[in-house]
Amino acid sequence: MRLHTLGSICLLATLALGHKAISPGLAKRNADLSGRCASGVAQFNKRRYERRSTASLEPRSANSTFQIVTEAPYYDVLQNDTCVLVPDVTAGPYYWPRSETLRQDMTEDQPGVPLILDVGVIDMATCEPLPNALVAFWHCNATGSYASFTGRDPNTPFVQLLEQLNITDFEIGKTDLHTDDTTFLRGMWPTNDEGILEMKTVFPGFYVERTIHIHTQVFTDWVLHTNGTVKTGETNSIGQLYFNEDVSGQLMALEPYVGHTEINRTTNDVDTIYSQGFENGYNPVIDIVPLDGKDVRNGVIGYITMGIDTENIAPLSSGGM
Ligand SMILES: *[C@@H]1O[C@H](CO)[C@@H](O)[C@H](O)[C@H]1NC(C)=O
Ligand SMILES: *[C@@H]1O[C@H](CO)[C@@H](O)[C@H](O)[C@H]1NC(C)=O
Ligand SMILES: *[C@@H]1O[C@H](CO)[C@@H](O)[C@H](O)[C@H]1NC(C)=O
Ligand SMILES: *[C@@H]1O[C@H](CO)[C@@H](O)[C@H](O)[C@H]1NC(C)=O
Ligand SMILES: *[C@@H]1O[C@H](CO)[C@@H](O)[C@H](O)[C@H]1NC(C)=O
Ligand SMILES: *[C@@H]1O[C@H](CO)[C@@H](O)[C@H](O)[C@H]1NC(C)=O
C-alpha cells in the first residue's frame, strides 16, 4: 500500500506535467507574441474600462439590492498584461463538452459568491479583438464538485480515484468518468463584435491538489445549428484561469466555501499547473473588482483578456487536472 502511494505520486507528476511540458520553441513564440501585442491589449482593455466607467450598463447584480458603482474606476492602474495565450494547458479530467450549454448564466442552483466574467479575446496574429469566438468555461462548485461528475469525490486524489476504479489507461477526452448529466457551472458564449463576452457564474471552490481555477476553451471554428446544438471544429485553444490569493482567502472564509473542511486548500504558490502559466510568458490571473465597488464578499467582476494564437492552434492536450 505504501509503495503504491509512492508510485501514485510519481504518476501524478507525470500526469500533471509529463509530456505536456511546453517546448522551448513554443514558449518563446508565446512570449514574443505576448510582447508584440502588449500595446494592442492595453488599448483593448482601455476601451473596456471606459465602457464600464461611462455607465452604459444595466444593473447587473445577482442580488438587486447591490448597486453597481459605475462612476468609480475599476482599475487604479490600467492593466496591460492580462494576456493569456491559451496554449498547451491541460483540459483536466472533468472536461465534458456534452454538458456545456450555450448560455450567459451558468450558475443554475449553485450557491456561492456571484462572479461575472468579463472576457476579452485577442487574435495574437493581428493584436486585434477577435469577434465571434466561442468561449467555453467549466469549474467546480463551492465544495469542489464538477457537474456531470457529481458521483466522484472531490477530496480523493485523482490517482487514488483511478486506482479505485481500476483504470490504468486514463486519457482525457477518451476515458469516460462521468456519473450523471448535470450541467451546473458549465457554459459557453461567443464574443461580440468587440471581442468581448460576459458570463455569469459563482466563484469556484476547490478540490484536492489543485488551486482554485476555471477551465476555458476557445473555438474559432464553430456553427450553431437551427436545432440549438453547437458544432465545434477540431481546433481549439485551452487554458486555466486563476485568482489572486488575497481574494480567494477572503471568499473561502465565507459560507458555503468554508464548510469544505475535508481537505486543505492548495494555493497558487504550490500548484504546478499554475506556475506553468507564468513560465510560458502569460498572465492567467483574473483581475477582480467588487461588484458593489466596495466588498468582494458581495460579488465580483472578473476581467481577463485571452490571446489566441490563430496561426498555431494546438490540438486538445491531455494529462493533469
Ligand atoms: C505595460 O505596463 C508596464 C508597467 O506598468 C509598462 O512599463 C509598459 O510600458 C506598458 N506597456 C504598454 C504597451 O502600455
Ligand atoms: C441580497 O443581499 C441582502 C443584503 O446583504 C441579503 O439580505 C439578501 O439575503 C441577499 N439576497 C440574495 C438572494 O442573495
Ligand atoms: C456541489 O455539488 C455536489 C454534488 O452535486 C453537492 O453534493 C454539493 O452540495 C454542492 N455544493 C454546494 C455548496 O452546494
Ligand atoms: C477493482 O478491482 C478489485 C480487485 O480485482 C475489485 O475488488 C473491485 O471491485 C474493482 N472495482 C471496480 C470499481 O471495478
Ligand atoms: C442538430 O442539427 C444538426 C445539423 O443539422 C445535426 O447534425 C444534429 O444531429 C442535430 N442534433 C439534434 C440533437 O437534433
Ligand atoms: C491541514 O493542514 C494542517 C496544518 O498542516 C494539518 O494540521 C491538518 O491536519 C490538515 N487538514 C487536513 C484535512 O488535511
Automatic annotation (TrEMBL):
Domain Intradiol ring-cleavage dioxygenases: 92-220
Keyword Magnesium: no
Region forming the signal peptide: 1-18
Superkingdom of origin organism: Eukaryota
Pfam family, one: Dioxygenase_C
Keywords: Signal
InterPro entries: Intradiol_dOase_C, Intradiol_dOase_core
SUPFAM superfamilies, A to Z: Aromatic compound dioxygenase (SSF49482)
PANTHER family per the UniProt record, alphabetical: INTRADIOL RING-CLEAVAGE DIOXYGENASES DOMAIN-CONTAINING PROTEIN, PTHR34315
The protein, known as: Intradiol ring-cleavage dioxygenases domain-containing protein
Organism in which the protein naturally occurs: Neonectria punicea
